[in-house]
Specification:
The chain has about 130 residues and is α+β, with helices and mostly antiparallel strands. It is about 35% helix and about 35% strand. Strands 1, 2, 3, 4, 5 and 6 form a 6-stranded antiparallel sheet that branches. Strand 1 and strand 2 form a beta hairpin. The radius of gyration is 16 Å and the shape is globular. About 15% of the residues are buried.
Length: about 130
């Protein structure tokens, strides 16, 4: 399962071992016990990857081979592709900008999505360091 956490300063993606339904149920119970509101809905999430990212072709091949239909990779321009995922959005309210997006695919598809995202984060942080930020 993949968990995308949207916070004020960005996005964090991680692989989780727990089944999707279990993690959603745990989050619902936590909200109930804490007396917090929780909004859950089917949704989509997307992020950009460099079009020349190493391993992107492996992801695309895996999506075709495993017939994964709830992940799409589409060109944005010559430099980037958009990876779109279908899953569930969990947040404190309908209009919340911070929250959790959960989704599950084949192990191989999750592996490649996660590794590609990690590689681009390392590349992005090295660019920021090189720019003196």
């Amino acid at each position: 399962m993949l968990k995308l956490t949207y916070i004020e300063d960005g996005l964090h993606l991680e692989r989780m071992a727990a089944p999707l339904e279990v993690l959603i149920a745990q989050r619902v119970l936590l909200a109930l016990r804490a007396g917090q509101k929780l909004y859950v809905e089917p949704s989509k999430a997307a992020f950009l990857l460099p079009a020349d990212a190493f391993g992107l072709s492996y992801l695309e091949l895996t999506l075709k081979r495993d017939r994964v239909q709830n992940i799409t990779v589409a060109p944005v321009d010559d430099a980037f592709v958009e990876v779109s995922l279908q899953g569930s959005w969990l947040a404190e309210g309908v209009d919340a900008h911070e929250g959790m997006f959960l989704t599950a695919f084949s192990d191989r598809a999750e592996f490649f999505v996660h590794k590609l995202w990690q590689a681009t984060q390392v590349h992005a942080s090295s660019l920021a360091i090189g720019d003196g930020r």
